[in-house]
Amino acid sequence: MNPLWSIFWLLLLLLFVWYLAGIISWFCILLLPLTACIPGLKAITDGLLMVVQLPFQCGVNIREGKRGL
């Protein structure tokens, strides 16, 4: 575990990832019901869900001190 990488991930989380996930979550909420009617949207909503889960991944990386992006 490297504390410098943990600090990096914390700064990334606080300055960028939370805001990005918050904005993307609105698009995800709007598109998810349409995915039942338009199966082609599944790939898009899956990608959006991955972005919404970025804060969790940053938290794991903070705890483990993982290196790099």
List the topology elements.
Blueprint: H1 3-35, H2 42-52, H3 54-64
Helix pairs in contact: 1-2, 1-3
Overall description:
By secondary structure, the chain is mainly alpha-helical. 80% of the residues lie in helices and 0% in strands. It has helices spanning 3-35, 42-52, 54-64. Helix 1 (3-35) runs antiparallel to helix 2 (42-52) and helix 1 (3-35) runs antiparallel to helix 3 (54-64). The longest helix has 33 residues, at 3-35. The chain is elongated and about 45 Å long. The two termini are 15 Å apart. The mean pLDDT is 93.
What share of the residues does DSSP label as strand, in percent? under 5%
Compute the average pLDDT.
93
Shape: elongated
Low-confidence stretches: none
- The count of helical stretches stands at 3
Number of strands: 0
Helix content: over 70%
Strand-pairing-aware structural class: mainly alpha
In N-to-C order, the SSE pattern is HHH
